[in-house]
Design a protein that fits this description.
The chain has 360 residues and is α+β, with helices and mostly antiparallel strands. The protein has one domain (12-334): L-amino peptidase D-ALA esterase/amidase (4-Layer Sandwich). It is 26% helix and 25% strand. Strands 3, 4, 9, 10, 11, 12 and 13 form a seven-stranded mixed sheet that branches. Strand 14 and strand 15 form a beta hairpin. Helix 3 (98-112) packs across helix 4 and helix 6 (253-269) crosses helix 7 (311-331). The longest helix has 21 residues, at 311-331. The relative contact order is 0.21. Mean pLDDT is 92; it is low at 1-6. InterPro entries: ArgJ-like_dom_sf (IPR016117), Peptidase_S58_DmpA (IPR005321).
């Protein structure tokens, strides 16, 4: 099935308009890059999100974190929560590669800022993870500094989704998961329009609970498996999801945390209950202004969006997150990895015409 036919057959979430690409990169300046490792038992990778093309250590962006369920091994969240800024690109990878990617971020910052850790403060690397150990031989710790740099250098506004980058080895609802993205446009008031984009690393969910656009797809999958005399899939929740929300609206860290929390509404609509074994973390950032690294440089004079105008952004965060998860599931391709473990894609198991045949 062609990508255009896939897109046409999928449901559109909500009533807001999408951006040009229907991706996080509809927020001006944001780019995404991948490095995919697909070699037998090694099925993993790294994905990098750049809020802007400059040096984030020098020109930080406001950000906030919302931890829906803290079963995870990410690094850098504590300082983001305290200071409310990002000072490296955002990296996504597998659990055992967090250290290698964090070291790569530090070394890149040192190359660009030789006084970092001496006359300048140390840098706060920011790496999120999900456990791809079902498909990937995670013990090999295959992701390297070179892989991070490759993803960073290749970041662009048009990027692949599905079984790529950090999403290569991820599973979702006992199907193939991975990278998905979407965006929505919001008119806060007349003459004032903003974009909200989401990118997800989907590696969560119990198949019987799967909902797509309000349809109980998990129940259909169970019925289909019974018809084919296949064993029912009812594994415990032990995955994770990382959600990154970007906006060009001028928000401070407090408001961005509120925005991040609303991504949880979109996640819940897909059937997630933020289970015990699932690490569900949201990072939100704004590209409307930057915060200088040095006290010698002037702070930006920015008029923040009034709290009373946030509801449209909240809706956009929820809708773009839900849409991004649908894109991750649908655009993922089947993968066979470690010990012959296999995850079929949703598109292979159920065609979109069957999934959403009753959807208007």
């Amino acid at each position: 099935m062609s990508s255009s036919k896939q897109q046409a057959s999928l449901p559109f979430i909500g009533s807001l308009l999408q951006g040009e690409r229907n991706a996080i990169t509809d927020v001006a300046g944001v780019t995404v890059g991948h490095r995919t490792l697909a070699d037998g038992p090694v099925q993993t990778g790294v994905t990098v999100i750049r809020p802007h093309a400059g040096d984030l250590f020098r020109d930080k962006v406001p950000a906030a974190v919302a931890v829906l369920n803290g079963f995870g091994k990410s690094v850098g969240l504590l300082q983001v929560e305290e200071l409310g800024v990002l000072e490296t690109p955002i990296a996504l990878t597998n659990t055992f590669s967090v250290g290698a990617v964090a070291a790569a971020q530090i070394r890149r910052c040192l190359a660009d800022n030789p006084e970092c850790g001496r006359t300048l403060p140390t840098v706060n690397p920011l790496v999120f993870e999900c456990n791809d150990g079902f498909l990937n031989d995670i013990q090999r710790m295959a992701v390297s500094e070179a892989d991070y740099l490759h993803a960073l250098a290749g970041a662009t506004s048009d990027f692949e989704q599905g079984s790529v980058g950090a999403g290569r080895g991820m599973s979702s609802f006992q199907l193939k998961g991975g990278i998905g993205s979407a965006s929505r446009r919001v008119s806060a008031r007349e003459g004032l329009c903003h974009t909200v984009g989401a990118l997800v690393l989907a590696n969560y969910g119990r198949q019987p609970q799967l909902l797509l656009a309000g349809h109980a797809v998990g129940e259909r999958l169970a019925a289909l498996q019974a018809e084919r005399s296949l064993p029912a899939v009812n594994e415990a929740e032990k995955g994770s999801i990382i959600i990154v929300v970007a906006t060009d609206a001028p928000l401070d860290a407090r408001q961005l945390r509120r925005l991040a929390l609303r991504a949880g509404a979109g996640l819940a609509r897909t059937g997630s209950v933020f289970g015990h074994g699932s690490g569900d973390i949201v990072l939100a950032f704004s590209t409307a202004y930057t915060v200088p690294d040095s006290v010698e440089r002037p702070m930006p004079a920015v008029a923040m969006l009034h709290d009373g105008l946030l509801d449209g952004l909240f809706q956009a965060a929820a809708d773009s997150t839900e849409q991004a998860i649908i894109h991750a599931l649908w655009r993922a391709t089947a993968v066979t990895g470690r010990d012959g473990n296999h995850r079929a894609s949703l598109a292979d198991v159920l065609p979109a015409s069957t999934l959403f045949s009753n959807h208007a």
